[in-house]
Amino acid sequence: MRRFLIFLLIVALIAEIYTFQAVKAATKTKWVHWVYLAVSILVILYIIYSFTQFDRREGQNKQSLFTMGLLLITVVPKLVITIVMLGEDIIRVLGGFIRMFMGDSKQPFLSERRRFVSLTALGLAAMPFLSLLYGMTKGKYNFKVIRQTITFPDLPDNFDGFTITQISDVHSGSFDNKERIQYAIDLINEQKTDIILFTGDIVNTHAREMYPWIETFKGIKTPEFGKYSILGNHDYGEYIDWPTQKEKDDNFAAIKDLHRQIDFKLMLNEHIKIKKGDEEIALVGLENWGHNFKKAGDLKKASEGLTPQDFKILMSHDPSHWEYEVKNHPGNYHLTLSGHTHGLQFGIEIPGLIKWSPVQYVYKQWAGLYENIGRYVYVNRGFGFHAYPGRVGIWPEITVLELKKG
Q1: Among 400, 406, 329, which Cα is nearest to 165's?
Q2: pLDDT surpassing 80 at residue 6
Q3: Which phi and psi (to 5°) does residue 128 adopt?
Q4: Does residue 403 carry a pLDDT above 60?
Q5: How far apart are CA 315 and CA 325, in angstroms?
Q6: Is residue 175 exposed (0-12), middle (13-18) or buried (19+ Cβ within 10 Å)?
Q7: 374: exposed, middle or buried (C-beta count within 10 Å: 0-12, 13-18, 19+)?
Q8: Tell me: the pLDDT tens digits for 342-384?
Q9: With left for phi above 0 and alpha for psi between -120 and 50, is residue 221 left, alpha or beta?
Q10: What number is the average pLDDT over the span 44-48?
Q11: 255 in Cβ contact with 229 (< 8 Å)
């Protein structure tokens, strides 16, 4: 860990040096140089101070969220500048060796930096800067309703056209705009689907994070077939240092009770039958099961009494569960609903053209619909945000799924 931090400090120092050189080459105005240096020093000092104030007993809060956003909005553009300026330096060094080899002693070994290159570097850096700034101010509440139709040959006839609204990863402790959250709740209610399913992470860590938002989320209207929910990895309170085990246990009990308070039925490794006429499907709700996270989910226990022939919808927070256990399971789970990844809250999505996020190098299933031998998993991009207080390109999602027989 220490070596990694030293490496990060060295990279940050190099990026800072190159960025200052770009500013100096772009303009000869001295006061601009001094203003840049003053602002950079103040930002660096604030980030260092803020990280020293991070309390492992408290976990993420508004200050740590802002600090992480400030860190990204500061470092990422400077890394872009560094790449461009480093490329120029490689060319400058090669040119110096060529001139030395050719015997040209009239020119200095390193030519002066070109203003055009510095302006280009600053222009390119403006793109991630503005994108991250937008993500922190507007993007984190840029809610999108995404509709998806999924066809199953063995769907019971009475459930042809059955609709599901899925939300996931609320992370209520990160919210700071009641008006935009109410807008999202209104969007959920406008969908008028048959059932509403919430696939985990109601808070970042503490149950109290949700208390200001209980009445808001209680405003989600209960559809004909009810509202059901499961736990996510953050709901277990395992990412902070608790003074006592009792405080951790009490917090976990309070988090589970939050679901009751917003009129959701929390499912803990169990299933229910949803009946429509004389036919039924099974809704299976697991506790968290992640390949690299807590494995409290018990698929065997949750599915007791079910057969491979029963049509099943499985709620499991982490999509790695589908990859490692569910997709080839002999119990035949037709549709799995997950969240967890948030699409890293950063990426590029243009329907039909491109779908990319760095999180895809960690999770095979990270956003949207995936299929394996007629079994599906849908990964919701998340309702809230965590760590980085924003979203760029991967917007907060309300999913509407329609089940069709065919």
Answers
A1: 400
A2: no
A3: -65, -30
A4: yes
A5: 13
A6: buried
A7: exposed
A8: 999 999 999 889 999 999 999 999 999 999 999 999 999 999 9
A9: beta
A10: 90
A11: no
Task: List the CATH code of the domain at 140-405.
Answer: 3.60.21
Residue 1 clears pLDDT 70, i.e. is over it: no
Identify residue 299 by its one-letter amino acid code.
L
Residue 103 pLDDT exceeds 90:
no
Tell how far CA 247 is from the center of its chain: 28
pTM reported for the whole predicted model = 0.92
What does the alpha-carbon distance between residue 295 and residue 246 come to, in Å, rounded to a whole number? 21
Structure token pair of residue 208: 């109290």
- Please report the DSSP string for 31-98 in residue order: HHHHHHHHHHHHHHHHHHHHHHT--TTT-S-HHHHHHHHHHHHHHHHHHHHHHHHHHHHHHHHHHHHH
User: SS3 string of 356-400?
Assistant: ECHHHHCCCCCCEEEEECCEEEEECCCCCCCCCCCCECCCCEEEE
> Are the CB atoms for 312 and 333 separated by under 8 Å?
yes
Query: Could you give the 3-state DSSP secondary structure of residue 282?
Result: strand
CB atoms within 10 A of CB 193: 20
Closest CA to 136 of 72, 77, 51, 182: 72
Tell me, what's the pLDDT at 391?
Answer: 98
DSSP class of residue 133?
H
Q: Residue ranges per domain, the chain? A: 2-137, 140-405
Write the CB contacts of 322 (distance below 8 Å, at least 6 apart in sequence).
316, 336, 338, 365, 370, 377
Partners of residue 274 on adjacent β-strands: 281
pLDDT per position as a tens digit, 210-247: 999 999 999 999 999 999 999 999 999 999 999 999 99
How many residues are present in the chain?
A: 406
